[in-house]
């Protein structure tokens, strides 16, 4: 991590402060400013709009040590605020803070995410979900880093990087944060449980996807679901892996509509999507994992396939077929005859889902059968 170069900005002392005079100043190609700080008197400044705007557009001035040349006198400073025109987006005013080169200062430094090519999770289609793009640090002015690098090497789908994982250059330390070891970035994946919304469909064969997702949500203490237009969504951590849980609320036959929205919004690859659904071709309680393939007549899968293709992961939960003359359509919409027999399997899936998310499907199946 290289240290920041000092940015030089020329300024002149300004004795005018009235609003009308400030408008005139701007029309002449200048920007009013001020510099202040503990132990210093406030000093009004005039800056060249052309010169300052060039510096402003070249990078984040708020993360640079500034050498202000004020009518021939040099002062070190930080940019603390830049006011922009609400329509034209031009700089209207600049607020500087005096800096003593021998003191410790607090400054926000941008984060740079490196080694994406060495992150298996991204190679497999994971989505880099950046939660923090800069971080406040303390250091002496001559130790200000240009960026703070966040190394993505070795990170898998669902894994996160926290602030304590980041290495700082010598002489730089983090400013205390209310959340001691907060998350900076995750590589996200999504589990989608299929079902039908409404109390009349609870505990039905067709809603086993919802049932499993709800159990994962409870077992791993996910945050509350958020209601969107046609789906419920939440996110949480499973063994240090960031996972989204989703329940389409568009009814089974239209599941593809919200799934496509979610995929497009979060830029998820199909490798990163697991759909949990009922399967009448498997005897009740039997579990299989499959990637791609046909929908086998399942209307929810048909809908998803039509919107995003079929090359996603499926967790197939066997619900069997009716033993009487009941039609298959009526059967899958009927409740389990003895849900207590299904509950232990659902709990095992929730408890061990991290194995499947890590790609260890064999270990996952062995633990739940």
From TrEMBL:
SUPFAM superfamilies: Peptidyl-tRNA hydrolase-like, Ribosomal protein L25-like
GO MF annotations in UniProt: 5S rRNA binding; peptidyl-tRNA hydrolase activity; structural constituent of ribosome
Domain of life: Eukaryota
GO-annotated cellular components: cytosolic large ribosomal subunit
Large ribosomal subunit protein bL25 L25 domain: residues covered: 9-96
InterPro entries on file: Pept_tRNA_hydro (IPR001328), Pept_tRNA_hydro_CS (IPR018171), Pept_tRNA_hydro_sf (IPR036416), Rbsml_bL25/Gln-tRNA_synth_N (IPR020056), Ribosomal_bL25/Gln-tRNA_synth (IPR011035), Ribosomal_bL25_b-dom (IPR020057), Ribosomal_bL25_C (IPR037121), Ribosomal_bL25_long (IPR001021)
PROSITE patterns from the UniProt entry: PEPT_TRNA_HYDROL_2
UniProt cross-references to Pfam families, sorted A to Z: Pept_tRNA_hydro (PF01195), Ribosomal_L25p (PF01386), Ribosomal_TL5_C (PF14693)
Entry-linked NCBIfam families: bL25_bact_ctc, PRK05618.1-2, PRK05618.4-1, pth
PANTHER family reported in the protein's UniProt record: RIBOSOMAL PROTEIN L25/GLN-TRNA SYNTHETASE, ANTI-CODON-BINDING DOMAIN-CONTAINING PROTEIN (PTHR33284), RIBOSOMAL PROTEIN L25_GLN-TRNA SYNTHETASE, ANTI-CODON-BINDING DOMAIN-CONTAINING PROTEIN (PTHR33284:SF1)
Designated name of the protein: 50S ribosomal protein L25
Residues in Large ribosomal subunit protein bL25 beta domain copies: 104-190
HAMAP family according to UniProt: Pept_tRNA_hydro_bact, Ribosomal_bL25_CTC
Keyword Ribosomal protein: yes
One GO-annotated biological process of the protein: translation
KW Ribonucleoprotein (keyword) present: yes
Cited Gene3D superfamilies: Peptidyl-tRNA hydrolase, Ribosomal protein L25, beta domain, Ribosomal Protein L25, Chain P
Key words, A-Z: Ribonucleoprotein, Ribosomal protein, RNA-binding, rRNA-binding
Organism field: Timema poppense
């Amino acid at each position: 991590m290289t240290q920041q170069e000092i940015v030089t900005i020329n300024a002149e002392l300004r004795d005018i402060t009235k609003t009308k005079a400030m408008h005139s100043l701007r029309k002449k190609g200048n920007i009013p400013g001020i510099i202040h700080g503990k132990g210093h008197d406030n000093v009004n400044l005039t800056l060249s709009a052309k010169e300052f705007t060039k510096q402003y557009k070249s990078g984040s001035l708020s993360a640079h040590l500034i050498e202000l040349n004020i009518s021939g006198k040099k002062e070190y400073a930080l940019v603390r605020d830049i006011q922009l025109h609400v329509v034209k987006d031009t700089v209207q005013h600049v607020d500087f803070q005096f800096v003593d080169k021998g003191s410790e200062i607090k400054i926000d430094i941008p984060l740079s995410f490196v080694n994406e090519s060495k992150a298996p999770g991204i190679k497999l289609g994971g989505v880099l979900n950046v939660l923090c793009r800069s971080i406040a640090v303390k250091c002496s002015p001559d130790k200000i880093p240009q960026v703070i690098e966040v190394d993505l090497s070795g990170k898998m789908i669902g894994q996160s990087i926290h602030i304590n994982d980041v290495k700082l250059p010598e002489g730089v330390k983090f400013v205390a944060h209310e959340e001691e070891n907060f998350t900076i970035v995750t590589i996200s994946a999504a589990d989608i449980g299929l079902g039908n919304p409404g109390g009349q469909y609870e505990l039905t064969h067709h809603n086993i996807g919802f049932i499993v997702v709800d159990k994962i949500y409870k077992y791993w203490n996910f945050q509350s679901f958020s209601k969107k237009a046609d789906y419920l969504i939440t996110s949480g951590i499973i063994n240090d892996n960031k996972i989204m849980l989703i329940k389409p609320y568009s009814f089974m036959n239209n599941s593809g509509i919200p799934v496509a929205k979610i995929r497009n919004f979060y830029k998820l690859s199909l490798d990163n999507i697991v759909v949990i659904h009922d399967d009448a071709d498997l005897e009740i309680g039997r579990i299989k994992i499959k990637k791609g393939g046909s929908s086998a007549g399942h209307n929810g899968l048909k809908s998803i396939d039509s919107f995003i293709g079929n090359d996603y992961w499926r967790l197939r939960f066997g619900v069997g077929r009716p033993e009487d003359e009941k039609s298959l359509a009526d059967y899958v919409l009927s409740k389990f005859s003895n849900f207590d027999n299904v509950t232990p399997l659902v709990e095992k899936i929730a408890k061990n889902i991290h194995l499947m998310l890590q790609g260890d499907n064999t270990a996952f199946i062995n633990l739940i059968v």
